[in-house]
Amino acid sequence: MARPRSEDRRNAILGAASRVVATEGLGASTSGIAREAGVSNGSLFVYFETKSVLLNELYVSLKTEMGAMAVDGLPDGSDPHDQVRHLWDQWMRWATSHPDKRRALAQLAVSDDITAESRQAARSGFGGIAELLDRCRQRGPVRDAPLGFLLEIMNAMADATVDAIQRHPDHAEEYSRIAFDALWRVLG
Question: What residue ranges does this record give for the DNA-binding region (predicted)?
Answer without folding.
Answer: 29-48
